[in-house]
Design goal:
The chain is α+β, with helices and mostly antiparallel strands. It has one domain: SH3 type barrels. The protein is built from one helix and five strands. It has a five-stranded antiparallel beta sheet with strand order 4-3-2-1-5, with helices on one face. β3 and β4 form a beta hairpin. It is rod-shaped, with a radius of gyration of 20 Å. It starts with a helix and ends in a 16-residue tail after the last strand. The mean pLDDT is about 85.
């Protein structure tokens, strides 16, 4: 009887620590991909930053440099980034 309770407790713990956070991350990723629009600044899985120029069903056209565009799988986009401000505030900050 105790072993069944222990097994049930382990299953619940696994569910709370592994499955639920993964579902939340997938939902956030799905929402991000649905809201992609041309002009968005994004980051890809590989660490490329660029501007979305075109959004297709399964791919995006990403401008990574002036006149340099790459076509990526839509699922490769992991985050939206804030557009960089080109002002005097771009001074380097020292590392801690």
């Amino acid at each position: 009887m105790i072993s069944l309770l222990f097994l049930a407790g382990m299953i619940v713990l696994f569910w709370l620590l592994i499955v639920m956070p993964q579902r939340r991350r997938k939902a956030v990723q799905r929402q991000l991909l649905m809201q992609l629009e041309p002009g968005d600044e994004v980051m890809t899985v590989g660490g490329l930053f660029g501007t979305v120029r075109e959004v297709g069903d399964y791919h995006v056209l990403l401008e990574i440099a002036p006149d340099t565009e790459v076509r990526l799988a839509k699922s490769a986009v992991t985050a939206r980034s804030e557009p960089e401000l080109e002002s005097a505030e771009t001074s380097e900050t020292p590392l801690p």
